[in-house]
Amino acid sequence: MTTWVSWSGGKDGALALAVTRERGPIAGLHTTVLAGGEVAASYVPRALVEAQAAALGLPLETVEPPSPCPDEAYEERTGASWAALRRRGASEVVYGDLFLADIRAFRERALAGTELTARFPLWERATDGLAREMLDRGVRAVVVCVDPNRVPAELAGRTWDADLLRALPEDVDPCGENGEFHTLVTDGPGFAHPVPVSVTGTALRDGFVTAVLRT
Question: In 3-state terms, what secondary structure has residue 166?
Fold first, then answer.
């Protein structure tokens, strides 16, 4: 079994990676990077996910979707990337998704025809318990992108920790699975050393408030 992890640099993927590593080795990380050099959805600079991969001792494979990128184009481009990894011996892909069925179906469509198996080791686990488990396992993260229509904009750039969880509105998922926020992991299980990250401010990007990051 040769396993790759779909990776955006966030806490859910970090726990999925840790759980999967308990049953066997990981071949590498796979990340979607936009034309501007930032990770899709979180706007994290590529250099930071490269630093994460180095700290984890894993190779990083990237795919760049076209811009603009309708779902069909994304599925075609990522599907081709996964197919290339299959030819190199990959057999399964691990995702950190938690409960959104449409996202899971989207992932599975991207693997259609590649002979790769999609695995979701955290699927449908209660997210309040998952958040506590992440912290207990030593996952350390920074909130790098928030939807200001769902959570206070000032959460961008804050440490994702027990204090932040207590400060979240009651209708916000503690793992941000509904798109309320995204995180960047700076340390956790399997990291040889922390990834140094400084937050120098915030910016408004496509309606989202993002943290301005510096290594």
Answer: helix
